[in-house]
Each structure stands twice: as C-alpha cells, then as structure tokens.
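Researcher: Predict the fold of ABC transporter substrate-binding protein.
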Amino acid sequence: MTTMTRRTLLRAMAAGPALALGVPRLACAGAEFSYKYAHNLPMTHPLHLRAQDAVDRIRKESNGRLEITIFPNNQLGGDTDMLSQVRSGGIELFTPSALVIATVVPVAAINAVGFAFSDYSQVWKAMDGALGAHVRERIGKANLYAFEKMWDNGFRQVTTSSKPIADAHDLDGTKIRVPVSPLSISMFKALSAAPASLQFSEVYSALQTRIVDAQENPLPIIQAAKLYEVQKYCSLTNHIWDGYWFIANARAYRRLPPDLQKLWETAFNDAGMLQREDLRKMNQSIQSDLESRGLKFNQPKADSFQAQLRKAGFYQEWRGKFGDEAWGLLEGAVGKLA
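Model: Structure tokens for ABC transporter substrate-binding protein follow.
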C-alpha cells in the first residue's frame, strides 16, 4: 500500500496542475511544447468538446510534440483575467467573446452592433470575409494571434425575472447584466435600460440575489449555465450576434516550428467549423428544453429596437468610433445601418 505524504502530494500537484483542478491530463513526457488553453464555458458546451477534439488531434498528429492542457469553466479566472494572461504569456490560448477582446482591440466588437445581422448568411459573409480579416489584423497588433475561423456563440437573447420584453419600451429602467463591453453598455443605454458590466462567472449569483433583473446571452449559454433557474422569461430579441475568437499569445505562436503552426491552425479552424454546425443543431432543440424547465418565451419584432437606436444616434456614434473603413466592410455584408 502506498502512503500519500504531503511531499508526494505537492510533487504530484506541481507535475500536473490540471489534475489538481479536476481536469484530465495526459502525460506530456517528451513534449517539445506544453501549452495551456483556457475558456469560460462548461465542459458540456460544444466549444469545449470540439476544442478537446482539436487538442487530441494535435497531440496525435504531432506525435506528442505539442501538448495542450484545457482549463474550462473559468478555472483560471474571469474573462478579463484570462485575456490578460494570454497577452502576457501566462496562458497560451484563449477563446474570448468578441465583446471581451474588444476591451483591448475595440474594432473586434463590430460584429456586436445592435440588430446588424438578420441571419447567419450575413454573419459568415462578414466574419469569414473582409471584415473578419480586418479585425484579425488589428488583433495581431495587440501581441495576439487570431485563428482564421471564429467559433459561434450565437445570437443573443434577453432573459428577465419580472416581465417579457415585447418592444423597446419594455427595457426602460431594466437593470440588465452585460459583458464588460462599451458597445453593449452603449446599446442598452440607448434603449433606456440600466446596464451593469459583470464577469460571466458572476452572472448567476447576480441574478439570484437580484443585483440585476435581467441578462442577455445566446440560448446555449442560458442552458449550460442554468440561468433558467433564476429567470422567468426569455425574449428572442436576436439583438446581436456574438462569436468566439480563438486566439494565441503571439510569442507562443512564433515559438512553434512551421509544421506545428500549420497543424494547430488547421486543427482549430476545422474544429471551429464543426462547432458552428453543432450549435446550429443544438439551437433547434434547446428552446423546447428550456421551456420544459419553466422558461417562458416570446418573439418581439426588431423594428421598435432599431428605431430607438437610430433615434438615440447609436449607429452614427459607433460608425465614428469604428471608423469608415470597418463600418463600410460591415455594411457591405449587411446593408445600410446608419
């Protein structure tokens, strides 16, 4: 029988920090590069599952030369913490929402302009095309490397504890949690709501304790984070589309030899395309599941929200902030906004 002494335990934790956090990790003996990848989602979310597939593929096809350990579910901190860590090199990979990375690269938030995209055909035309290339170039200037394909986070919906949101006037005075994003704050202020920026890791408790009355997220996040336990209504506003940029510390990217750079680029982009399809299929059944858990749905029309945003000068203001070049690329995919 082996006795687990304090010294033995400390050595085990030092050798495998992911095990101490409850994350399975394969032995990395012989790995030339051992990288850490962090995200804020549960292990059941399609992003985690497809990222794990990509990590396994990279390990296999590199013959163990590149080992990547995944730290899911905010294990290494909130979004702002992880973004800071990937910039400094404390972690090598991170998948922030575009709204999160926009705190460092402001133009990254352009996909989150309120009611800009009417459907996914417009989303991928923009983000797989010239607008996405423009944003990646700007991300590169922040000591980060952005993979070509964005991963889907979905259209965002509003949930509330007190009443459904049928039109723009129903948001008057509503205390709503939004990401740490100037664009989100600006949009909900223009809609006369009272937005509060909180880390995603704080959302459930803030709703539970009524620090805020409402929040907005895509349906898979509402389901995975069990927000239906602390909310009563879900209004399918589709107010913004949000996605995840798969990013790496630029120095960590450059340390890899060309064959490994190509491998992880291919593996993560391929996995991202599969994750998009996973999320599409999931959204087909997720509303029924949430309804069965007591969440009540309604379908507001976009017209009153768009009219209010135009009246408040929201589109004109953000055209000025993003610049004519980026705004022109957006309107080239979705049509005239301002």
